[in-house]
Design a protein that fits this description.
With 254 residues, this protein is of the alpha/beta class. It folds into two domains: 5-95, Glutaredoxin, CATH 3.40.30.10; 102-213, Glutathione S-transferase Yfyf (Class Pi), Chain A, domain 2. It has helices spanning 28-39, 81-91, 102-114, 116-127, 136-154, 166-178, 197-207, 210-213, 219-230, 241-245; strands at 5-6, 19-23, 44-49, 69-73, 76-79. Strands 1-3-2-4-5 form a five-stranded mixed sheet.
Length: 254
């Protein structure tokens, strides 16, 4: 799979008949859907797009110009990770990722909602540090503490059960990125094992899940992307080995 991000002026690849996901490789929301599709062993293709210089055809699949967007039939798509993932879980029930209990499903949604403050604090710390408020670090750690408490209460390996489910795949992409914050000069956001032993163990267990292992990026890679974006030139294609291998040295000017 090429990880080149298509941009303004690039042609939309032909539709193959498979599910097709429009994504950005460093987007946690798009990663949510990738993990769900991997967990369900679905056959799909991914088209990565440059969100700073969006292809003209992206709006045909995502009216807001956001990712992820899922093309489920040629020319027909839905967007927003939460909408897509519930659709996939209902459309392809062979590997169920939600509880059959309506109350448990509601509780999972509450866990995600209560974690939103930590996600917001991450974005500010990573991409707009000058806008950090005095309570941002507190909000971040309150979100982590609440999540660790919920793991303790449930007493299972993952939030869903002894196998990960939709709630786990919804939260993990942000936890993956949280580990990059100390590497970009934000040590106060560290996920310390001394303080978060249960949560860190959960995070390490999630990294071993095949659906995640196939897509996971380490903290150093996330830090490089964050730094490139903050310099005003986000390096969307840093993982595209096809671009590297095909580069030829330029001829010296006479």
């Amino acid at each position: 799979m090429s990880e080149k991000h298509l941009q303004t002026g690039d042609v939309l690849p032909p539709y193959s008949g498979k599910l097709r996901l429009f994504a950005m490789r460093f987007c946690p929301y798009a990663e949510r859907t990738v993990l769900v599709m991997n967990a369900k062993n679905l056959q799909y293709e991914t088209v990565f797009v440059n969100l700073d210089h969006k292809p003209e055809w992206l709006s045909n699949f995502s009216p807001k110009g956001t990712v992820p967007a899922l093309e489920y039939e040629e020319g027909k798509a839905i967007f927003d990770s939460n909408i897509i993932n519930v659709y996939l879980d209902e459309k392809y029930p062979e590997v169920p990722l939600q509880s059959s209990d309506p109350l448990r499903r509601a509780e999972d949604k509450i866990i995600v909602e209560l974690f939103a403050g930590a996600q917001s604090a991450f974005y500010t710390a990573a991409y707009n540090p000058s806008a950090l408020q005095p309570n941002s670090v507190e909000t971040y750690h309150k979100g982590l503490e609440a999540l660790q408490l919920k793991l303790k209460e449930r007493g299972t390996k993952f939030l869903h059960a002894d196998t990960p489910g939709l709630v786990d795949f919804t939260l993990f992409p942000f936890l993956e990125r949280f580990e990059a914050l100390p590497l970009v000069g934000k040590p106060e956001f560290e996920l310390s094992k001394t303080k978060y032993e249960l949560l860190v163990n959960y995070l390490e267990a999630m990294k071993q899940v095949p659906a995640i292992k196939a897509y996971y990026l380490d903290p150093q890679t996330h830090a490089k992307f964050i730094e490139s974006r903050n310099k005003g030139d986000a390096n969307y294609n840093m993982l595209d080995t096809s671009a590297v291998c095909c580069m030829r040295p330029r001829k010296k000017k006479e």
